[in-house]
Amino acid sequence: MPVVWDDPRVDWSGLDGALIRSPWDYVAKCEAFTRWIDSASRATRLLNDAATLRWNLHKRYLFDLSARGVDIIPTELVPAGHDPDWDALFERFGDIVLKPAISAGSFATIRVDRGDHARAATHRGEHMQRDFLVQPLLRSVVERGEVNIVLIGGRVSHAVEKGARWSGDREQSRGCVDPSEPARRLALAALGALPSLGLAPTVYARVDVADGPDGRPLLMEFEAVEPALFLDRVPGAADALASEVCSRLGG
Q: pLDDT means per 10 residues in the chain (251 residues)?
């Protein structure tokens, strides 16, 4: 049965487990959501598990994956309350993407043309209380989009091609695709890095990949909290997720 994470009427101890699927309002309630993860995980079994959820809430996880050999999109973290050296960032990245480090649904994610200090500084000023990421705008994302690879039970289930999405845009999924072998390897490498971080294997995850300037795939995001999994696009995908959940819960 579907329930809302912050509904006070829910008795989490009465559930065998809780599959976390679409708590998209957590961005505005992150502290409360983190407290809920801690309390709910004491009452029932969360899938994905509490440690993975906490780790995945903040996109600093990209640096953890990079340190373990996963090819990520080049990223600069700007802490809350800080204004970066825009000249240096434009020099390093060219056109850039700005996004909050805690975000969902492309919240407050914008592109900025190289040298447009006013747009970058204005957007940063509107969100100064948030940690922010600065990344290069990949031409492949603009021209072809990104590939979202869905992993269920540690295996590649399916993938969807999606157009670039900025703050306020609707999702632009274009249908299922067969990801390249390098993209598959990258997705599985990201998943395979979790044990070295002390994290359990995920029930599900979505790995968002795009081609870098040299054509090699780069990891843009590893989503284990609330990603759209496009289960309606592939016959049997929802059943595979349900089977994995039952297996984890011993059913």
A: 94 96 94 98 98 98 98 98 97 97 91 97 96 97 94 97 73 85 98 98 97 97 96 95 94 60
Burial class (CB in 10 A: 0-12, 13-18, 19+), 28: exposed
Whole-angstrom CA distances from 170 to 106, 111, 158, 164, 209 are: 9, 16, 21, 10, 19
Query: CATH second-level architecture of 16-71+138-232?
Result: 2-Layer Sandwich (3.30)
**pLDDT of 251:** 60
**CA proximity to 219, closest of 184, 171, 172:** 184
Residues contacting residue 43 through CB under 8 Å, at least 6 positions apart: 12, 13, 15
Predicted confidence at residue 173, as pLDDT, reads 74
* Residue-wise burial string across 177-207, b where 16 or more C-beta atoms lie within 10 A, e elsewhere: bebeeebbebbbbbbebbeeeebebbbbbbb
Domain ranges of the chain: 16-71+138-232, 76-137
Beta-carbon contacts of 4 under 8 Å, excluding residues fewer than 6 positions away, are 10
What confidence score (pLDDT) does residue 169 get?
63
**What is the dotted CATH code of the domain comprising 76-137?**
3.30.1490.20
For 125-192, the three-class secondary structure string (H helix, E strand, C coil) is HHCCCCCEEEEECCHHHHHCCEEEEEEECCEEEEEEEECCCCCCCCCCEEEECCCCHHHHHHHHHHHH
